[in-house]
Amino acid sequence: MKRSRFSEEQIIGILKEHQAGLGATELCRKHGISDATFYKWRAKYSGMEVSEAKRLKALEDENARLKRLLADAMLDVSTLREMLGKNF
Hints:
Blueprint: H1 8-19, H2 24-31, H3 35-45, H4 50-85
């Protein structure tokens, strides 16, 4: 997955500028982002503080790690069942 040029702190700062009254198109032009990116950020980070965004990122990383562990365990189980099902 491509890494963003902007950190969570910068994204929240940009969104706070918008809340202060700056227009979305002006912000996008000023920071070099597309309208779609701005609205995606607004949907994800709207109303968050920096500490909450960091916690969200940590939870997303932990969730991805746990999903990988579950997939590995399921693969091991299916391999063992297949091996036990064969007659030697």
